[in-house]
Structure to design on (245 residues):
């Protein structure tokens, strides 16, 4: 129960990796704001936490809209308390080769993955600076180093890394840490939908010999969110079974 009575916001927590993170933080004692653009998915995650004896609320949030983000933090404060932990997990992809990519594909990904992360981080930073305490963990990606067919996604995640390092420098003196995690090939509803041949190719590139599970990422987040990680900030940590060099 390293996070007992801490209030944690997890964006994109309705399913997949975000759901795994929310469940783990609740298991560690945190009161969790389950944020997702799909309120039905958010409610299901919230229900699982509550059935396990944890505290949680579900909040429908489009993080690409500042007013949604501000409302989410307001609800968190009113119902659970001021936010101690923020996990910026929500993200989308709209893949396409650079020469064929539309402005809409570019704008959608940047709006959610980068601008949305900025809105959440900025809102959290205002609260955390005043309280002289906070943990911000951003989900980046190995693609921040570049990936064919993902110019928009790679640019957004590279931006998240830059935002992480800048925020970490600005907030360190306020006892607020900011770190980024780059998950590798993680087994979720989305990745399980890829053809078996593609799955096998991806797994063959992983020295550990298997796809990761949401809890592999969630375990690290629980540590970074705890007081045990108080002296760790501005880091970009790979969780990929050795796949990410």
């Amino acid at each position: 129960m390293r996070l007992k009575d801490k209030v944690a916001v997890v964006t994109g927590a309705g399913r997949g990796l975000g759901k795994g993170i929310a469940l783990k933080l609740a298991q560690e004692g945190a009161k969790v704001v389950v944020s997702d653009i799909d309120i039905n998915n958010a409610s299901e995650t919230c229900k699982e936490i509550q059935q396990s004896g944890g505290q949680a609320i579900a909040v429908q949030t489009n993080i690409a809209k500042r007013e949604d983000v501000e409302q989410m933090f307001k609800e968190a404060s009113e119902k659970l308390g001021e936010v101690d932990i923020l996990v910026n997990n929500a993200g989308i992809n709209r893949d396409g080769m650079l020469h064929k990519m539309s402005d809409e594909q570019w704008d959608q990904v940047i709006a959610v993955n980068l601008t949305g992360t900025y809105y959440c981080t900025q809102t959290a930073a205002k609260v955390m600076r005043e309280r002289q305490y906070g943990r911000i963990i951003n989900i980046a990606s190995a693609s921040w180093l570049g990936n064919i067919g993902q110019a928009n996604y790679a640019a957004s995640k590279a931006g998240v890394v830059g935002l992480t390092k800048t925020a970490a420098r600005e907030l360190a003196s306020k006892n607020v840490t900011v770190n980024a995690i780059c998950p590798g090939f993680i087994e979720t509803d989305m990745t399980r939908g890829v053809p078996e041949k593609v799955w096998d190719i991806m797994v063959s590139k992983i020295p550990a010999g298997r796809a990761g599970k949401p809890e592999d990422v969630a375990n690290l987040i629980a540590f970074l969110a705890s007081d045990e990680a108080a002296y760790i900030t501005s880091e970009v940590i790979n969780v990929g079974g050795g796949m990410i060099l």
Remarks:
- The chain has one domain: 7-239.
- Residues 7-239 form a domain with the Rossmann fold fold (CATH 3.40.50.720).
- Strands lie at 7-11, 31-36, 56-60, 85-88, 134-139, 176-183, 236-239.
- The chain has seven helices and seven strands.
